[in-house]
Amino acid sequence: MKESGRTPSRPSPPPAPQLAPEVRAIHQIDTILAEMQTTVQPLMHGYLQEAEAYISSKAAGAGFSSEDTQRMEKRLKEEHARVGELLLQGLMKVDGVVVPDGHDEVRSRRKEVVRTLNRWLEQVDAMKDKVQEKTKL
Question: Taking the model in full, what pTM does it have?
Answer without folding.
Answer: 0.80
